[in-house]
């Protein structure tokens, strides 16, 4: 077998990206070399730099270039609250609401036994250690409201309660602006059960 | 404004890939850093190497790491035939049919005035020079049978004929295995006009 040419190597490497098959990979390689060499050079640099610099925050497990991420280093935050999210994007969404001033723990995934993702893959040991620092008083579970996210929340909840920590979960209910006619029955059922005195 | 972190730079660079928007770019960046660092390092190397090494063949204009590509260096090929294709993938498809033993010219695009792609962008001057080498006797147009491909073929055909070269075009007609009931009327009309004595 002939060794792969630089072009074939590039197409092969592009297939490692999620959602990119052989045809797209080839199209991407051709496009970048034909129409955007500057972008190709940027991508080369960006990948090398990211691999070299990006680590996990020793405290909250998110991506960071320093041992501690910016959020964890922020002394203004309420260290008694620890919000558990699946991904850095989820953390960003919560930050944008400006309703939460505590710290975070980013699982970088969710429990998914069918895909072979167990407690170890979502860094549960690190989370337990983090939550048991004596300062954290409440763990706020903000995993997704999908089956896997709910299972993850349940599992973490049990683990935390066994250690005597207070655990809460984001409220479920009718979305803001939601019309009952178009909201699914499961959501309305949950909103009815969780109804609040006004 | 804060300078972008390595992660943001990577997501930004990934948006340069065709068909990748901001959400996909972020998802790709997270995925590669979380689950496939080896792939990320491969991508970094592959992009750098491709940008550094890949040039256009001085004769046929395809991608190559040497001044002349392998096909153009192959002395066994029929240098009197020059097949014009839009992309290296098209060339590869024709090669796989084993029906053509001549040389190629790869336009690396197609005429598309609406997108601002003119004769210069598809290297027509280089093609004219290549076809006028005194050896090429017939130019075989194998651009796509799309509106743009047909327009490109027509334009090249006129240019070549003005220089006294023989020009041909791949035959149009009913695809092999095609059932008339499911073939579009335009194709059947063309197959009827181009019908051949058996």
UniProtKB/TrEMBL annotation, chains A, B:
One of its GO terms (biological process) is DNA repair. Transmembrane segments: none annotated. Coiled coil: none annotated. Belongs to the RecR family. May play a role in DNA repair. It seems to be involved in an RecBC-independent recombinational process of DNA repair. It may act with RecF and RecO. Pfam families: RecR_C, RecR_HhH, RecR_ZnF, Toprim_4. Keywords: DNA damage, DNA recombination, DNA repair, Metal-binding, Zinc, Zinc-finger. Signal peptide: none annotated. GO terms for molecular function: DNA binding; zinc ion binding. The keyword Zinc applies. Residues 80-175 form the Toprim domain. This is Recombination protein RecR. A zinc finger (C4-type) spans 57-72.
């Amino acid at each position: 077998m002939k060794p792969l040419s630089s072009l074939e190597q590039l197409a092969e490497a592009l297939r490692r990206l999620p959602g990119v098959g052989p045809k797209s990979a080839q199209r991407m390689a051709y496009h970048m070399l034909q129409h955007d060499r500057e972008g190709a050079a940027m991508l080369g640099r960006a990948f090398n730099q990211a691999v070299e610099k990006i680590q996990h925050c020793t405290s909250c497990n998110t991506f960071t270039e320093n041992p501690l991420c910016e959020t964890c280093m922020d002394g203004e935050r309420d260290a008694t609250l620890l919000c558990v999210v699946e991904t850095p994007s989820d953390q960003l969404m919560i930050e944008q609401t400006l309703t939460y001033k505590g710290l975070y723990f980013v699982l970088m995934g969710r429990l998914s036994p069918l895909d072979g993702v167990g407690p170890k893959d979502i860094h549960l040991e690190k989370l337990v250690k983090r939550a048991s620092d004596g300062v954290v008083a409440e763990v706020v579970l903000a995993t997704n409201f999908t089956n896997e996210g709910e299972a993850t929340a349940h599992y973490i909840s049990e683990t935390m309660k066994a250690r005597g920590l207070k655990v809460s979960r984001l409220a479920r209910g009718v979305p803001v602006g939601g019309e009952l006619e178009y909201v699914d029955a499961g959501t309305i059922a949950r909103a009815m059960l969780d109804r609040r005195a006004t």
